[in-house]
Design a protein that fits this description.
- It is globular and about 55 Å long.
- A two-stranded parallel sheet has the order 1-2.
- The longest helix has 24 residues.
- The chain starts with a helix and ends with a helix.
- It is mainly α and 122 residues long.
- Helix 2 links the parallel strand 1 and strand 2.
- It is 60% helix and 8% strand.
Length: 122
């Protein structure tokens, strides 16, 4: 968690210094440690802990994005296996990264907006 805060959250917040930031996390025990709370607070970011069993209802990815994203990933992987069936294909880190980027690009903006609307964010 500390690595994610340092390598992802901090650089993001530093590029948006004039904005207010809210980080919502579920009740996974590493999220609740004092060091995580302190690190997030030191960045000037508000931390909100979700009540237990709420993740599937309020997290945009869980509610409406993960399934189509995984469907796209599955399609890329299956297509790769079929196209390379004779050569015993091995998926490289670079190829997986490309599939992730391509799968995300295939998620329609409208899908994200509808999901945010469904859970009451907009």
């Amino acid at each position: 968690m500390g690595t994610w805060i340092e390598k992802s959250l901090k650089p993001f917040i530093e590029t948006k210094s004039k904005e207010l930031h809210l980080l919502m996390m579920d009740n996974f025990s590493p999220h609740q440690t004092q060091s995580v709370r302190d690190n997030v607070s030191d960045l000037g970011c508000l931390l909100a802990m979700l009540p237990p069993n709420m993740t599937s209802r309020v997290q945009v990815l869980d509610v409406g994005i993960n399934k189509p994203f995984k469907d796209h990933m599955r399609w890329f992987y299956s297509s790769y296996l079929v196209e390379n069936a004779e050569s015993k294909p091995k998926v490289t880190r670079e190829l997986m990264t490309k599939w992730i980027a391509d799968s995300w690009e295939l998620i329609a903006r409208d899908t994200i907006l509808k999901t945010c609307n469904k859970i009451g964010f907009i």
